[in-house]
Design brief:
By secondary structure, the chain is α/β, with parallel strands linked by helices. It has 2 domains: 9-22 and 82-213, GTP Cyclohydrolase I, domain 2, CATH 3.30.1130.10; 32-69, GTP Cyclohydrolase I, Chain A, domain 1, CATH 1.10.286.10. It contains 8 helices and 8 strands, in the order βαααββββαβαβαβαα. It has helices at residues 32-45, 58-69, 77-81, 131-140, 146-161, 175-178, 197-200, 202-213; strands spanning 9-12, 85-87, 94-105, 111-121, 125-127, 143-144, 165-174, 189-196. Helix 1 (32-45) packs across helix 2 (58-69) and helix 4 (131-140) crosses helix 5 (146-161).
Length: 218
């Protein structure tokens, strides 16, 4: 394989299954009335009064919040991509780094959040820049664990583009460990998935890892 150091395409953008395969989610929207009743039950069971002034609209707000924070279950992948895949004569590394994401831990339903870094090696096809953060958001807006989310993003990009290689690294801070349990305020988690050329080529993998650790292009 030829040296890729001198011909790198890089972008920097910030936007707001236990298996490694892309999960197929049925199109089921949140039932607003049922959700509100469930939130009222939670308020009662923690010793609150859902009829007091400050909580009167809380069930409705929380139901709408969950609808927004779990929107990834209902995203149409075809609409998300929107034909933004283009044929190009380019086979060097494409990097999109520092993508902010926010998700909910499936174990405690508390937030975890951080940055995602994504790279791929095109095999005749590239995807529009804005689509990479949208793909990250699609998998983040579900009940998740960080390890699973990392694999889902990488596998989806590999399958969608038939890329020669895909690399995904996620950094995350988890409120379930910061607010409760060990209450470790400064602990962060890093997960990664390497596919194709990134998995088998140590130099290419190292170049990507060095690049996302840098604040500027080499």
């Amino acid at each position: 394989m030829r040296n890729r150091k001198n011909s790198k395409m890089s972008y920097n953008e910030t936007l707001v299954e236990e298996s490694n395969e892309v999960q197929q989610i049925p199109e089921v929207q949140i039932n607003q009335a049922n959700m509100e009743e469930s939130i009222k039950d939670i308020l009662i069971n923690i010793g609150e009064n859902p009829e007091r002034e400050g909580l009167l609209k809380t069930p409705n707000r929380v139901a709408r919040m969950f609808d927004e924070l779990t929107a990834g279950y209902h995203m149409d992948t075809e609409k998300l991509i929107n034909n933004a895949i283009f044929s190009v004569d380019y086979d060097e590394m494409v990097v999109v780094k520092d993508i902010e994401y926010y998700s909910l831990c499936e174990h405690h339903m508390l937030p975890f959040f951080g940055k995602a870094h994504v790279a791929y090696i095109p095999d005749g096809k590239v995807i529009g820049l804005s689509k990479i953060p949208r793909i990250v958001e699609m998998f983040a807006r579900r009940l998740q664990i960080q390890e699973q989310m990392t694999s889902q993003i990488a596998d989806f990009i590999k399958e969608t583009l038939n890329a020669s290689g895909v690399a995904v690294v996620l950094e995350g801070s988890h409120m379930c460990g910061m607010m409760r349990g060990v209450r470790s305020q400064n602990t962060k988690m890093t997960t990664r998935r390497m596919l194709g050329e990134f998995k088998h080529n140590k130099d290419l993998r190292q170049e990507f890892l060095e690049h996302i650790a840098s604040n500027s292009l080499n």
